[in-house]
Design brief:
heterodimer, A: mainly alpha, 13 helices, globular, disordered N terminus, disordered C terminus, B: mainly alpha, 5 helices, elongated
Chain lengths: 435, 164
């Protein structure tokens, strides 16, 4: 549990200015809403999606670039310095530059995808990639100077390498639409999906879960030999997949890569479930219902990938795989974020007070409940709609998803507003140690 | 909890007992309607147990940590977590200052409707703060004691804590 102690002990002294982290989260919340709206427009063509420019690709990237990466960048910029006992640089410009370049780049790239405008897509992809490279530099600097938290640091390094592969393959795909083929398209897609979904996002989510889940559940950290085994298998799976996708190993090895990845993930989930079940704090609310749904979707995505690799002939299998992978990551991340946002808001707002606000004071639980039911229903309808090729189900899924995203935005804006309302009082005379 | 130190185990036992009372209080008070209610004897017993746990926690448990453990943590270079836990003690004391008079009024049947609403709010706030605080102590403070205390000091502190 030494990791948790360093995490908690250093937290108060290693916080970035609230506006830095919250602007990443705010962008993610807004783009989450836009993603469901884009998917509404894309609904009729979703079951037959096989790549190519249009609203489906835009919706997909509004979730991946706009929500998943945006949230992960913002959260890791804050959580990693705390976890690895690094001081936070006083200069704000690197964070602001990352945010501006990344947000504008993502918006331009997604618009380019939606309107089938390759030039706009490339013009957006380049600043977004530059922002991610700058983020990668900050990530690497942080990991290099890390004190403790070896398991999280290893996940971080592996995620950083995956980000490079994801960026390279993503740029190759974006420039491919303009006629500049840097990499064979199927190879680029394979690398892009594998290293974005399971490499960068998967590894960071797994790494941070080893801190956050025991912390929330009040439980012992998992046995290092099991968590190390899980990481080792995940890295082996990614390496195997990379060798197959780049043609250095025959395709028959791809099934082994998926099965190895599946085993790594299964061990991770079992460890997290043990943490939750053995924790002194039970009933972690709607956030952990989402986390569990996310785990289930990710596990299902790996099983489906294996079935597709075995050519079992599943109707719209590739699209269902995409929904499970991206939907699973989104669900898991929104669950975690619904815990992190009130926690950070309360921490910032309460600095210097004798009786600081509690995270629940920063939470509109009803909005989170609406989001939980809407989001879960939307995912189920989306899967059913794709499988049955039913346009009504798909439209209903996106409408319910939009409702959920609106409720989540309400929860977020409320937390931010309550924090901001309390923040200015800190400088007021006599505000310190006040209730 | 697999600590080798008696002091850690004693604090952990306190935490476990405390969490049980807090869980019962949270469940019971979540059902209290706006404007209060006429409490049955079971409910009054729970209020008394909560007040007793809180008073004991503040006097004995917090006092022991602030007097005997936090200075040692600071000396060992873990002042950050000691300061964080001290701040949380202070916040819980602030809640207790408002809560304890209300529990006494509830026990004697002199609590009005507004008082019941405040009592409910305070209890739920206390539960949230205490659970979060115990969470930090279980994850940060107790494991640290394994390295911080030698066997002799551990025995002595555990004895003093048990006798207090």
């Amino acid at each position: 549990m030494a990791g948790a102690s360093t995490f908690l002990g250093g937290a108060s002294g290693r916080l970035l200015a609230p506006s830095i982290v919250f602007r990443f989260f705010a962008s993610a919340v807004l783009l989450h809403l836009l993603a469901w709206l884009a998917l509404f427009l894309a609904a009729p063509s979703l079951p037959d999606f096989a790549g190519g420019l249009g609203w489906t690709l835009a919706a997909l990237h509004l979730v991946t670039l706009g929500v998943l990466l945006m949230t992960t960048v913002g959260a890791s910029l804050q959580l990693l310095p705390v976890a690895t006992r690094q001081s936070v640089p006083s200069a704000r410009w690197p964070y602001e530059l990352i945010w501006i370049l990344y947000t504008l780049g993502t918006l331009a790239a997604c618009t380019g995808m939606a309107l089938a405008a390759p030039t706009l897509l490339a013009a957006g992809a380049l600043p977004a990639a530059a922002a991610l490279l700058l983020y990668l530099f900050l990530l690497a600097r942080n990991l290099r100077g890390a004190k403790g938290m070896g398991l999280v640091v290893l996940h971080g390094w592996a995620a950083g390498l995956s980000l490079l592969v994801l960026l390279g393959s993503g740029l190759a795909l974006a420039l491919g639409y303009s006629g500049h083929a840097l990499l064979e398209r199927q190879t680029a897609i394979g690398l892009h999906v594998t290293f974005a979904g399971y490499g960068f996002m998967g590894l960071l989510v797994m790494g941070f879960s080893y801190i956050l889940v025991p912390m929330f559940a009040l439980s012992d950290n998992p046995e290092p030999r099991w968590s190390n085994l899980s990481l080792g298998l995940a890295l082996a799976a990614l390496a195997l997949a990379a060798l197959v996708l780049t043609g250095m190993l025959p395709m028959s090895f791809f099934g082994a890569a998926i099965a190895t990845g599946g085993l790594a993930f299964a061990i991770h989930v079992v460890l997290m479930e043990q943490s939750l079940r053995s924790g002194m704090r039970q009933g972690l609310g709607s956030s952990f219902v989402l986390v569990r749904i996310g785990w289930a979707c990710l596990a299902a995505s790996l099983m489906l990938a294996l079935a597709l690799e075995q050519e079992l002939g599943i109707r719209h299998g590739a699209v269902l795989f995409g929904v499970l992978l991206i939907g699973g990551l989104l669900t898991l991340l929104l669950g975690m974020l619904s815990r992190i946002v009130p926690f950070l808001a309360a921490m910032h707002a309460g600095a210097g007070m004798r009786r600081p606000p509690t995270p629940s004071r920063m939470t509109v639980q009803r909005a989170l409940d609406v989001h939980l039911y809407s989001h879960t229903l939307a995912l189920a309808l989306l899967l059913a709609g794709v499988f049955l090729e039913n346009n009504w189900l798909l439209r209903a899924a996106t409408a319910v998803g939009t409702l959920g995203a609106t409720a989540y935005a309400h929860f977020f804006v409320n937390a931010w507003w309550r924090m901001a309302r309390l923040l200015p009082k800190k400088g007021a005379p006599g505000s310190a140690k006040s209730t | 909890m697999n600590s080798s130190r008696h002091t850690s185990r004693a604090l952990h036992e306190d935490h476990s007992a405390n969490l049980q009372v807090l869980a019962r209080a949270e469940q019971a008070f979540a059902r209290v309607p706006r404007g209060g209610m006429t409490p049955d004897p079971e409910f009054l017993k729970l209020i008394a147990a909560l007040a007793q746990t809180l008073e004991q926690d503040i006097d004995r448990h917090f006092g022991f940590e602030e007097r005997d453990l936090f200075p040692r943590m600071k000396q060992a270079g873990d002042g950050g977590i000691a300061m964080l836990l001290t701040d949380e003690h202070e916040a819980i004391r602030a809640v207790a200052e408002e809560l304890l008079p209300l529990t006494r009024a509830a026990a004697t049947g002199t609590l009005d409707a507004a008082g019941w609403d405040t009592l409910k709010q305070c209890v739920l706030e206390l539960v949230e703060r205490q659970v979060s605080h115990i969470q930090k102590e279980e994850m940060a403070l107790l494991p640290m004691l394994d390295d911080l205390l030698d066997e002799e000091t551990d025995r002595q502190l555990a004895f003093e804590y048990a006798a207090s």
